[in-house]
Structure formats: structure tokens, C-alpha cells
Amino acid sequence: MIRDLKFAFRQLFKAPAFTIAAATVLALGIGVNTAVFSLVYTVFFAPPAYIKPHEMVQLFSQDKKDPKKFRGFAYPAYLDIREQNTVFNDVMGFNLALVGIGQKGDTRRAFSAIVTSNYFSVLGVPLARGRAFLPEEEIPGHNRQVAIVSYSYWQKHGLDPNVLGSQVFINGRAFTIVGITPKGFVGTMQILSPEVWLPMSVYDQVANDFGSENRTTIDDRKGTQLRIMGRLRPGLTAHAAKPELAGLAANLEKAYPVEQKDQTFMAERVSRNTVSNTPGSDSKIIAIAPLVLGMAVVVLLVACLNLANMLLARSTARRKEIAIRLALGCSRWRIVRQLLTEGFVLALLGGVGGLILGLWSSDLLVGSMRKLMPLDIVWLTGPNPAILAATFGFCLLGTLMFALLPALKISRSVVVTDLKEHAGEDVVRRSWKFLPRHPLVIVQIAFSLALITAAALFIRGAGKAASVDTGLRPGASYILEVDAGLAGYEPKRAQQLYRNLNERLAALPGVERASISSFVPFGMFELSRKVQRAGVHPSSDAKPATAAEGLAFEVAWNSVGADYFLTVGLPVTRGRGFTEAEATQPGPKVAIIDEVLAKKLWPNGDAVGQSIQYADQKGGTSADLNSGEKESMEIVGIVPATRHALFETEEPVGGIYLPFARGFQSDISYFVRFRSLAPGSEAAEADLLRRAVRDVDPSIPIISLRTFAQHLDSNLDLWLVRAGAALFSIFGALALGLAVVGLYGVKAYSVARRTREIGIRMALGAQAGAVLRMIMREGSVMLISGVAIGLLLAIATAKLLSGILYGVPALDPIAFTVAPLVLTIAALIATWLPARRATRVDPVQALRAE
Question: What is the rounded distance in angstroms from the CA atom of residue 657 to the CA atom of residue 587?
């Protein structure tokens, strides 16, 4: 084997141009696979940063009457489960919250995990420094302001040992740091890591439920704030624990018949990427992994087919060498082993380049996500053992894919023929005459067309997503996001602050209008509520007069200022907008709905002047969020429907707007509409808005400040569509380049080997045009065959992608026209260049050389 390796290196060093070209081709193929595997492994397969993850499960509370409905847990219910369960060694509770870290104007938004005191012990994670939370620091109402920070937080402070015991300001309150998590610990999720962990006793101080219908204090048994995870007893599985968990739920329902009505418990594996109340929330994301990996493997396959063609062409020049070896008694297996060793050395060279390229690509992707999201993203990329093993596996796979066939073919040499004078000629021995020459090139073209078509579909989707109609016409507007809660403001003080800031913004020079909004379409967060006609109760025996009267609809919810509709260019088509008094002072219970909801609730009548109310998940009325009273709201206006997110259901959901005074949120946004924004003036206008905020209160953190166009560009859904388009475009471009290079290489080598034949043809009177047509005809046969097969593959690929395409049918005619056209033009150019060279062969020089 050592002799084989030495000889392989000598052979490759003797042909440096071939070696560099082959290693580059492989580096591209292996690099794409390494990058994709790195991302997929991190998200879906990397072992969590806690011990024995197979023993950990998440507990879910399921509605027995409607098994599709799940909810979270109240803290008192968590205590009961912890004490009464017989299936877990221990259980812990937690939830995530957005908090502000820092002081005054330096506050920034970050994720925090609010946890029970046994959080780290249940996960089996020892802290790098300091201590975990104490049991008394968990008790609601004790308000123990202590915190445990992440290793990345400690790194940002230079790994200063004095961080332990120092204070960190969270939502304007001072917390003492008592511990630091170990390096690489990211909590229960794989991507987004909390920057700080807080005890359960401060939940009511720091948690933001974003207007949840079930907003309660942490010690209220009606609450649903917590997620519960537990470590199963040895030898017990989640399925085997099901009867005992059902019994535990029945006992709690008997003890608390109102709060635990119709609830049963079930245990499922822990979600890697969400903290959802619903099991299996990762399934949609997981479904993308094999698709992306499959596309990456196709790129590797195209690269290997390209290299196999190069080796087959190179083997023609080595026929005499192989024939001499066989004549001297060398076995066929010995020849195959030597050629496979040469291929493996090539694969290792390509693998090193591919590893560097793949990790660089992963860091580039993560960097683009960090720019998009103002939160701490922990992505465990790097040359870890799994990625190194995968890259080595790709090298082995590549060796078999590109080196085995040429090795088997050349080792079947006919010794006498290959030792003749012209054994190096391009002699084609085919037993199946009807098969086209160079079938590997045809397969390359087919796979390339499938990837180019997929790229075209995603590019078309990204183009449609970029021009999506939100329904708003805000003109030259900025969106200014602030959160007074992060500076320690209570709701009543925050409302007054927001009124003052709204007046200040509206009075700025050049500003036409300004208005407040709880949620912004295409923002990071959104809220929905169930609404129905007023006066409908689930216990009522009266039969509804119409079908719509007995229905409740899930709709998008927002609370806005008086000038909101004028500011964002959303006309009130019927009725009126909110008055200034309604928007700033709790008064008459009024609402504005969009045309979609109006048509759903009153399909044959006018909704203006009618009344609606919130409905709970079972169709009954819910309490007013602020006053706790059952709420009936008069509809005073109708506005056109707006789009709230990029990926929405085919049927519009509808929307409801409340005056901001009756739908207060701490994290809010201002639409600030300028009369005009001259090119290059964006920085000056943004600075003007920042100064206005500082003038009102310098401690208020500005979460984000961007134009409406920039806001849409930064949307996560749009980023995903663009990332998909970029990823598949890279796949398609690589496949196209490799296929074209392969076709050019085959034809160029064929022309070079057929110099004598072409010289004889021209000496006998063949014109240059005839030679050109002959070479082009041979290339066109390969091209047509590859395109025909490729269209079938493209149709199958498009069907697989149909579920994740945006706004584009699977068989989009433009994509299926452009992709074959691009490939055909590139392939014809790649064929024409060697054919043109063939027409310049000098018959005298060609025959003299022979």
C-alpha cells in the first residue's frame, strides 16, 4: 500500500495541470457537501449539550376532546407533576423571554431563559464557574434578582473572573451574576442560545407574553407559561410511560376540575429547534434536510462524473503502460488497486480544499443570519469529528464514483492491440452500437439541468417574494422600534411616554405623519386572536340564525394609533378611523376590522355598527386582556386586507385593529412618514429620529431603525426564500460549470486524439465546414440526449420542491424554458470551441507528425 501511495504521488506530480484541475473539481463537489452537512448536522443531528439526551423528553398537555390541541403548564401544576410523577427521575420547567441587557440607551435585546432551580441538574450540566439557582430563588414572589450568564457573554467581557459577582442590568433592574455556563452549552435549542438564565421567581418582572390571551401571574393555576422537560427513569421509554402519565393527569383533573379539565399528558422527544407546546414541531424543518443533502450529493455526482471522464481520457494515454504491466504478469486486481489509490489521493487533496471551502461557506451563512437577527446565535460549526468524518466519507464515496469505472475499463486492456504503434488512438470498442458515445457526459448534462431548473424556480420565487404586496402604502416611511419595558417602565408610565414620543416624532421637520403600532407586518413577531359575533356563548341552546353567527375565526391582531391608517396608506373604506381620544385613553370599546373578516362574519350584511367579541379556543367568550371583563366591541370601520407574513395560507385570515390604549404592548413600533426621502438622506433622517428618542428619554433602547423597504428586506421568511435561491443557484451554477467543462474536455481531448483522422479527411478534400458540422453533430447528440433525460429529472425535482416554493408553480413555464436554454447555449459553446480548433488542423503537419 505504501508503494501504491508513493507511485500515485509520482504519477500526479508528473501531471500537475491534471492534478490541479481534478483536485479543484473535487474540492467544489466535496465543499458543497461539507457545507450542507455541517449545517444539517448542527441543526438536526449534533448531540445536545447535556448528558444522556436519549433519557430526556418533553411533557405535553393534550386536550382529550380535541387531540390536536396542546397547551403549556402552570407553575403550580409543574410542582404537582414533580412531586407525584413515577416515571421521571426529575422534571424541570422553563420558558424563553426577550429581555433588555444593559443600561439606559445602551440596552440591547437578548434571549433569556426563565427556569426552575433544578434546570441545570436535570440536564446534567455543571457550570463553568459559580453556582446554580437555589430552591428558594425559584419561589414566585421572592424576586431573587440573580442571574447565570452564558459563556459567550463571559467571552464578550474578556473572560474576566470578576464577572462572577458583578451586576448585569436586565430590563432596567440590577441582577447579580452567580454562575457562568460551560462553553458550548446552548440550552435546549440548537441554534438560538439564551444569553442569560433567570430564576422562576422573577418571571412576572421580565417575561413578555406579547399580548397572550392567557396572560397570568406565574403562581396562577390557570397559567400556561411553562414548558416541562423530564429525565426518564432508567429503562423506561416515553411510550411505556404513557399509561402512568395519563393516570397522573386524571389525578390532577380530579383535584382541579376547572383548571385541568379534559387534559391528559404525553411525553415526546425534545424539540431541537423550537420551544413549542405542540409535539413534532420540528417535522416540517426536518423534511427539508434530505432534500438539501440530496441536491448537494447530485453536485458531487456531477463533479465525479466530470473527473471520471477526465480519467477515462487520461487512461487512453496510459494504455501502453497498463498493457506492459499486464504482459509482465501483473494481475488485473493489482492494476485496479493502483488506480483506485491514485483516485483516493486525488480525493484527499480535493477533500482538504472542500473542507476549507465548506467551513468557510457555513460561516458565511451564519454571518448573514446574525446580520438579520439582533439576537445571539450560537452555531457550532468548525472542524469537529463528525464533519471531519463526513468529509472523509465524501472522499471515499467520490473515489468509488469517479475512479472505479475507469480502473475497471483500463484494466481490461487487450495486450497485443495496446502494444501496437497507434494504441493511443481514440479507438472505441462498443458492443452496444446504438448507445451514444460518452454516456457519462450525458448523465452530467441531465443532472445539471435538474439543478439549474431548481435554481430557476427558487430565483423566480425570490423575485416574487421581493415584490410582495403587503397592502400598505407607507411611502417614504421609517419604522422605529422601541421597548420602554427594557428600560424598566411600567405599562401606565410607558403609555404616557409613547404618547409624548409620538407627538415629538410627528413634529419633526420633514415628517408628514407618525403613528404607533404594536405589530408590524412582516416583523419578527405577530399575534392572532379568535373572534366571533358578540352575544354567542357555547352554553346557549338557541340555534344560530346564520352559519357565520356560530363561528369563531382566528385573525391577525394589532393595536394602533389614531393616525395609523393615514400613515401607512390603508384607507378606511367604510365607517371611520379611531379618534385621538380612543387611541390614547381607555374609553368606548371599539374596533376596526378588515374586509376579509367582515365578509366572514357578515357575508350578506354591513359589519359597521355590529359588535364582536373575543372567543377562547373552544368558542366561548374570553376576558378583556386589560380589565378582565367580558368584552364586546363595536365595529366602527372597515379597511382593506393586508398581508402579515410571506408564507400565509391560501385563504386570507382577516385582521382586527384596536386603539393602542386598549391593546397596550411594551415592544412597539412607530411608522414615521416623511414627505420625501432624497437619495443619500437616509442617514441624516435616521439620526434625526434617534435624537428625538434621546430628547424624550435617553434610557429608552432603540431596538431597530430602518426604512420600510429595509424592513421588508430583513424579513426572516424573505431571507429563507433568498437563501434557498442562493443555495440552489450555487448548486446549479456548479453543476452547469462542471457539465460544460466536462463536455468541452471530452470534445477537446477527442479532437486532439483524432488529429490524424481529421488530417486525412482534410487531405482527401473535406472542407472546414464539414469537419465543424461533424464535431458539432457529435456534441449535439450528447446534448439532446442529456436535455431529454434532464427534463424528466427536472420535473421530478420540481414536484419534490413544490411544497417549499413561493408563488411559483412546480412546472413554471419560464423556469422550464430558461434552464434548458441556458444549458444548451453553454454546451453548444463548449462544443464549438474544440470543433473550431479541429477546422484549423493542417493536413500536412498532422500526417508528418504521424
Answer: 15
